[in-house]
Design brief:
The protein is 47% helix and 14% strand. The chain is of the alpha/beta class. Among the domains are: 80 residues, no CATH class; 114 residues. Strand 12 and strand 13 form a beta hairpin. Helix 8 packs across helix 9, helix 9 crosses helix 11 and helix 9 packs across helix 13. It is elongated and about 120 Å long. The chain starts with 10 loop residues before the first helix and ends in an 11-residue tail after the last helix. It is found in: Cell membrane. It comes from Streptomyces ziwulingensis. InterPro entries: P-loop_NTPase, T4SS-coupling_protein, TraG-D_C. Its main location: membrane.
Length: 596
């Protein structure tokens, strides 16, 4: 069979050619160095300079500089050029090793995006976009990188920063200890130019302690901690009924209690819907009568109390009052079941320590979302996993802030400047906003930048259902996928989104007439599912709307300038949390300063 491609009996010629090129790569620069160094030596020793003769300078230096001494020529035309060439080679190798170490020693994956493929996320384009989005930067001569967008990392193998703009909305799916906090949440909070909202289920050694001191230098720090994760003194209270004076607002508040208590698959059954409806009607009555939210628990305990009915009628909500009356006067078994369901949803309000955060407190300032969104303040919303009603209050507060930001953006011409960053870490556990997927469709255009961080895709499906999570995924203009993806279906989905590339396959055969080589092309996945599952820590995939998937090198905060100071502040804050926890659970240890 004749060979399908050229190259028969050429191995020997290829080897000779490579050797020749290698010799030339050494001899040519060495001969020129010998000529230059020999002339410098001749000049320094008082002899005449030679004309351009690099070959003779290397092979016969005495012929080129006949007046110079043997020792000076040995040093100047032989030893110095060789040492210089060796030093140059060592320097090049050292720089290459340093470059490889900075990029994690990882090879660029063929087929992944290059800088030109994600140009809208690179420095020049993202800076130009920031000028058009933020009127305050329009005439600025120099714009800091932090004012242009949220840093996602470096394009793998390079030092070129990749940022999402201040009109993007993002979802990050990253397993525990894959860098979601150290490389995404904390750097984003530290660099945010405007107000920052963070939800979290941890305090010590997390984003709370790492950023609190730094953010207190640019604005006021607010902390809502109803379950005492940070064990700090209560320095704020927030009125969840402030936005519940309309039926829609009261319904949204009740929806947060529903979402915090049952999964998306159970929210449509009769008891869940009926319990949520009763809560919304009672929330509306309490808000209209300017009562604290805890009064709702009294009404739930005594369904026959006509107080909420009278309030609703007095404020023109006769239809709502009629609905509430129908439930109260309905069959006792049904009424008791509905009220018991509502009581379970709002049970956290029976806890006086939790209720204190959402009822008026003397000498404690009130947190007002409308004022927060025009500041450079920071709001930390902390709740434990499975916090039930407590996590409902966290979700309600986050939702209230985002709605206040939307209203302010509309008053300001359509967009917040500076933008507001909302880091919804552990969103599936502590911030279950039911219609968050729908909010993603417009938040970015308002200058409200949400980054929802999940541990897995299925975690989002559990909270928002398959359709809701798919909607959020589709609406996100930036998706960040970190290491630890163990869901085979999701890994395959990502692999298909990344796509295929052509791979050259070379085959060699031997026959009596010699060796023949053939080359063919085939397509294979750029990143198969098993490679996505095995993504090393410190790397992430970035999917941006209308662009090829890119591989990023993450940039954890502790490797950035100023990390030592932040580490010290974080350690100090974590130690204070531990001290407060010990003092709280060991009253006899009164020597602890709980205000540290």
């Amino acid at each position: 069979m004749p060979p399908s491609s050229s190259s028969t009996n050429t191995d020997g010629y290829d080897l000779v050619l490579r050797i020749l090129l290698g010799v030339l790569a050494v001899v040519v620069p060495l001969s020129h160095l010998a000529w230059a160094s020999g002339n410098i030596t001749a000049y320094l020793t008082g002899h005449s300079l030679a004309s351009y003769q690099p070959t003779n300078a290397l092979l016969h230096p005495k012929q080129v500089w006949p007046e110079a001494g043997e020792n000076s020529l040995l040093i100047g035309a032989r030893i110095v050029p060789v040492l210089f060439l060796l030093a140059l080679g060592v320097t090049v190798v050292a720089l290459w090793i340093r470059y490889k170490n900075r990029s994690g020693g990882r090879k660029r994956i063929t087929g992944m995006a290059k800088a030109r493929d994600i140009k809208p996320l690179m420095a020049k384009a993202i800076t130009d976009k920031a000028r058009s989005l933020r009127p305050s930067l329009k005439d600025a001569k120099h714009i800091k990188a932090r004012d242009t967008g949220v840093l996602l990392g470096n394009l793998q193998g390079t030092r070129r920063e990749v940022r999402m703009g201040f009109e993007d909305v993002a979802v990050a799916i990253m397993a525990p200890r894959s860098g979601k906090t150290t490389s995404l949440a904390i750097p984003s909070i530290l660099a945010a130019p405007g107000p920052v909202l963070l939800t979290s289920n941890k305090a010590a050694g997390d984003a709370y302690t790492a950023t609190r001191d730094a953010r207190s230098a640019v604005g006021r720090v607010w902390s809502m901690d109803p379950q005492q994760i940070a064990h700090a003194a209560r320095e704020m209270w927030w009125n969840p009924l402030a936005d519940a004076k309309t039926l829609d607002g009261a319904g949204r508040l009740a929806g947060h209690f529903l979402a915090a208590s049952v999964d998306a698959s159970q929210q449509g059954d009769f008891w869940s819907k009926a319990g949520s409806n009763i809560l919304s009607q009672l929330f509306l009555a309490a808000a209209l009568d300017e009562r604290p939210i805890t009064d709702v628990m009294q009404w739930l305990a005594f369904p026959a109390d006509r107080g909420p009915l009278d309030v609703l009628r007095d404020h023109g909500f006769a239809a709502v009052a009629a609905q509430l009356k129908g439930t109260v006067e309905g069959p006792p078994e049904t009424r008791d079941g509905i009220y018991e369901t509502a009581r379970q949803y709002a049970a956290a309000l029976l806890n006086s320590e939790i209720a204190a955060w959402v009822t008026p407190q003397k000498d404690v300032p009130e947190f007002r979302p409308s004022e927060f969104v025009t500041s450079t303040d920071t709001l930390y919303l902390l709740s434990k996993d499975g916090g039930g009603g407590a996590s409902a209050l966290i979700a309600a507060c986050a939702d209230s802030v985002m709605r206040a930001a939307t209203a302010q953006a509309e008053r300001a011409g359509g967009r917040l400047d500076p933008p507001m960053l909302a880091i919804l870490d552990e969103a599936a556990n502590v911030c279950k906003i039911s219609d968050l997927p729908d909010l993603y469709s417009h938040l970015g255009s308002r200058g409200i930048i949400p980054i929802t961080i999940l541990q897995s895709y299925r975690q989002g499906q559990k909270v928002w259902g398959d359709a809701g999570m798919d909607a959020m995924w589709s609406a996100s203009t930036v998706k960040v996928i970190g290491s630890g993806i163990d869901d085979p279906d999701f890994a395959d989905k990502l692999s298909r989104l990344i796509g295929d590339h052509d791979v050259e396959t070379t085959s060699t055969s031997r026959s009596e007439s010699g060796k023949s080589t053939s080359v063919s092309m085939r397509q294979e996945r750029i990143l198969p599912p098993d490679a996505i599952r095995a993504l090393p820590k410190g790397t992430a995939l970035c999917f941006a709307t209308g662009m090829r998937a890119a591989m990023l090198d993450l940039r954890p905060w502790y490797l950035e300038p100023g990390a030592d100071e932040l580490s010290t502040a974080s350690a100090r804050a974590s130690k204070a949390i531990t001290a407060r926890a010990v003092a709280k659970h060991s009253p006899q240890q009164s020597d602890y300063d709980t205000a540290t």
